[in-house]
Design a protein that fits this description.
The protein folds into two domains: about 140 residues, Ribosomal Protein S5, domain 2 (2-Layer Sandwich), CATH 3.30.230; about 130 residues, Alpha-Beta Plaits, CATH 3.30.70. About 35% of the residues lie in helices and about 25% in strands. It is built from ten helices and ten strands. The strands form two sheets. Strands 1, 2, 3, 4, 5 and 6 form a six-stranded mixed beta sheet that branches. Helix 3 runs antiparallel to helix 4 and helix 9 packs antiparallel against helix 10. The chain starts with 5 loop residues before the first strand and ends in an 11-residue tail after the last strand.
C-alpha cells in the first residue's frame, strides 16, 4: 500500500464538573493535532508539547510504541498539560486512531473508546475526546447535550498537578449520608446542565467527595471560587483532578468569570490564564 499522510485532531475535555466524579465529561475547543507523514526523521512536538520526549509521549505508546516504517510523526497541541483538561486522553485517542489509519482498518468510535478508557483509566475524559459534547459514562458512554445558554470558563494555573497525587488525596470510604448526598448532587448536575437550570447546576457542582480533599493542592482555590461566583458563575470547581478550575455560567458571562478566577488565583501567588473555549459536539476528526 502506498504511504500517505494520516491526520487526526482530538479535543480537550473537562471532567467531573463537580459531582460527576469519574463519569461525566465535556469536550472543549482546544485541540491536539497529529500527522503521520511520509519520510524519515524523529518525532516533532509543538505547542504545549514542546520539550516532550518520545519516552513520555502517550500518543506514541498508544500508536504501538513506534512510528510505522517510512513515516514520521508530527504532533502539535494547544491543550495544556497536567491542568485537568484531558491532555493525556487526547494523546491516547490520537495514537489509537492513527494506528488504525496506518493499518487501513475501520476507525470505529466505540472500539477507540474501549481501548482509550483501558489505557487512560479515565473514561470521563476518553468519552468526550471520542464522541464530543457532554458525555455520561453509565455502563456505556451516553451523549447528552449541554444547554445552549451555558458557557464554560477556565482558569489554568501555571502550576501543574499530578493526577496520581490528586487521587492519593481521596478518602478510601464514604458514609451512607455522604453517598446519598453525592448521588443527589450528581442527578441535579445532569439535569441542570441539560436544562440550563442554574440552581441545579450550583447544587450539583458542589462536590463533597474529591474537591474538599484536593483543593488544598491549588493555592487560592477558595478565593477563585468566590470570585467566579461573584462574576456570575453558577458554581466553580476543579477541572478534572486540577490544577485547572472550571466554572459554568451563562455564555455571555463566561469571559468575565474566567478572568475573575484567574485574577483571584494570581492575587494568591498562583499565576493563571483565563480561557473560555467553546463546547465541541464532535470528538476526534480524521
Amino acid at each position: 500500500m502506498e504511504l500517505r499522510s494520516l491526520c487526526v485532531r482530538v479535543p480537550a475535555s473537562t471532567s467531573n464538573l463537580g459531582a460527576g466524579f469519574d463519569c461525566l465529561g465535556l469536550a472543549l475547543d482546544l485541540w491536539l493535532e497529529a500527522d503521520l507523514a511520509k519520510g524519515e526523521g524523529t518525532t516533532s512536538y509543538g505547542g504545549t508539547l514542546e520539550g516532550v520526549t518520545e519516552e513520555e509521549d502517550f500518543l506514541l505508546l498508544a500508536l504501538g510504541g513506534a512510528v510505522p516504517p517510512g513515516m514520521r510523526l508530527e504532533v502539535h497541541s494547544s491543550i495544556p498539560l497536567s491542568r485537568g483538561v484531558g491532555s493525556s486522553a487526547a494523546a491516547r485517542v490520537a495514537g489509537l486512531v492513527l494506528a488504525r489509519l496506518a493499518l487501513g482498518v475501520p476507525v470505529e468510535r466505540d472500539a477507540i473508546f474501549s481501548s482509550a478508557q483501558r489505557l487512560e483509566g479515565h473514561p470521563d475524559n476518553a468519552g468526550p475526546a471520542v464522541y464530543g459534547g457532554l458525555v455520561l459514562i453509565a455502563g456505556r458512554p451516553t451523549k447528552l447535550r449541554l444547554h445552549q445558554s451555558l458557557g464554560v470558563a477556565l482558569a489554568l494555573p501555571d502550576q501543574r498537578m499530578s493526577t496520581q497525587a490528586a487521587r492519593a488525596m481521596l478518602p478510601p470510604r464514604m458514609s451512607r449520608e455522604e453517598t446519598v448526598a453525592q448521588a443527589s448532587r450528581s442527578a441535579a448536575l445532569l439535569l441542570g446542565l441539560t436544562l440550563g437550570d442554574g440552581d441545579l447546576i450550583q447544587y450539583g457542582m458542589d462536590d463533597r467527595v474529591a474537591v474538599p480533599h484536593r483543593k488544598q493542592l491549588v493555592r487560592g482555590y477558595d478565593a477563585a471560587v468566590q470570585a467566579g461566583i461573584d462574576a456570575g458563575a453558577f458554581h466553580v470547581t476543579l477541572s478534572g483532578a486540577g490544577s485547572g478550575m472550571v466554572a459554568v455560567a451563562a455564555k455571555e458571562l463566561a469571559s468575565d468569570v474566567a478572568q475573575a478566577m484567574a485574577n483571584a488565583l494570581g492575587s494568591q501567588g498562583n499565576a493563571a490564564t483565563a480561557v473560555t473555549p467553546a463546547v465541541v459536539e464532535k470528538g476526534f476528526v480524521t
